[in-house]
Amino acid sequence: MAYSDKVVDHYQHPRNVGSMNQSAPDVGTGIVGAPECGDVMKLQIQVDDDNRIIDAKFKTFGCGSAIASSSLATEWVKGRTLDQALQIRNTEIVKELALPPVKIHCSVLAEDAVRAAIADVKKKRERAEADKETVSTK
Amino acid sequence: MRAVYLDNNATTPVEPRVLEAMLPYYREHFGNAASRNHRYGWIAEEAVDKAREQVAKVIGASSKEIIWTSGATEGNNTAILGVARMYAEKGKHMVTCKIEHKAVIDPCKFLETQGYEVTWLDPDQTGCVSVDQVRDAIREDTILVSLMFANNEIGTIHPIPEIGSLCKEKGVLFHTDATQAFGKIPIDVEAMGIDLLTMSAHKIYGPKGAGAVYVRRRKPRVRLQPIIYGGGHERGIRSGTLNVPGVVGCGAAAEIALQEMPTESVRIARLRDRLWAGLNEQLSDITMNGHPEHRLPNTLNVSFLYIEGESLMMGISDIAVSSGSACTSASLEPSYVLKGLGLGEDLAHSSIRFSLGRFTTQEDIDYTIDQVVEAVNHLREMSPLYEMAQAGVDPSTAEWQRH
Lengths: 138, 403
Ligand SMILES: Cc1ncc(COP(=O)(O)O)c(C=O)c1O
Fold this sequence. Notes:
The structure holds two protein chains of two kinds.
Chain A: H1 5-12, E1 27-34, E2 39-47, E3 53-61, H2 64-77, H3 82-85, H4 90-97, H5 104-137
Chain B: E1 4-5, H1 16-22, H2 39-58, E2 66-69, H3 72-86, E3 93-97, H4 102-112, E4 117-121, H5 131-137, E5 142-146, H6 160-170, E6 173-177, E7 196-200, E8 211-215, H7 244-282, E9 286-289, E10 299-304, H8 309-315, E11 319-320, E12 322-323, H9 336-340, H10 345-349, E13 351-355, H11 362-381, H12 384-390
Parallel strand pairs in B: 1-11, 3-4, 3-5, 5-6, 6-7
Antiparallel strand pairs in B: 2-8, 7-8, 9-10, 10-13, 12-13
Helix pairs in contact in B: 1-7, 2-7, 3-4, 7-11
The complex binds pyridoxal-5'-phosphate.
């Protein structure tokens, strides 16, 4: 089974590889998968005050299609609002990368990673809001 | 771009000398070896008999004990099912191990559905089953022990002579799938107490679709119920017109393998060790799978921690290797052989098998080292597991969201 040109391109030139400070208030981190299943994705987003994703990074342990799926996901989330980023569907990743049926789970994992990162930053924001309220009511 | 083939345990190219030997049997000597009454048949039969001698010689057998098959899958089925059916009166128990090739596992599993009982031995972490394990497993009603000579994924070699003499002592037949060992390391069916042995031509620079099973004729005389019925060829054990060119190729390949074994096994082992040393020198966190010493001279199986095997294969795409990673198998399960060693599934996902061969050169190995090191570094740069390990967190003890 040969890889599509786009998968090869993402593999050879992955976009946005790296890590952000996981504890920063404006950073959301999604870590999905498990080593014994053969893939782990860590996807991070940095969000401005208007809920817009201004930067994204990833690190992935997995096959070429898993690497390409997460690399593509970081490209796609950048510049979107959190709500817009939640619209990204794994089927779009499958189409863009021409993934074969056995690799669909890679795209699912990338979608999950985006959702997990968004949920993480939202949770941080809610907690910050709650803390602010407790401070102001003191 | 150069192309390097390091997947010789999967298959090998046909050696030019072997092909030369085969060609006349497609052309002018096309006769049926079973045609007893004309020259065409005699010439074919003569060639088949010569090939029988050539294969027998590699394992110290007599040519009468060689039965031609279509390869090792058929050979293993012939031996295992043949013994099971012929000796069912005596007992219905067999002993084998969990990391055999599927061509042994599946006929044994089939027998389990037919009222037979199979003891599946667990190998140790090097892939070895001990004589004591076999001794403990043998019962009154055991009719067969089937253990591979050398494992195809990790190359570990079983203590065959010890298991053979145990089987003799217990009066149990001993079959060994020697597909990977035949022609690579010395085998002597007499000294090693082997009753049945499987080989395949395409692993030793012969053609695909040809092979043989050795069936002992004396002390004891092993009898097999055939799995293929028909014209009664091959002592009634394997009916069907012989693939004469394939048989000739199998014989020629066996003869060359035997001739070159003393020099080739040393040359190849040296290259394999050079490969391991080169990788080990330039990369941290790699482990060798299989037995460090009792191993085929051509096989090196390595787990590259924190990266996944298929992605590594993608990074070295002009080098042909294989991986125990789930992503390279149709079933999405990682290698049952590496899992069977009890080393954890993550090591299986990260494994690559390099299997060297007659046409492997030192340049191939040096090129492979460079390419693998580069790809591993590239992949670790983007591995969250490597990042964790660098930060002092052991990924194997972390909490994961399983899917
Ligand atoms: C140990 C072992 N047994 C059996 C086989 C099957 O051999 P064949 O391809 O000749 O059927 C192989 C090869 O894949 C093997 O490595």
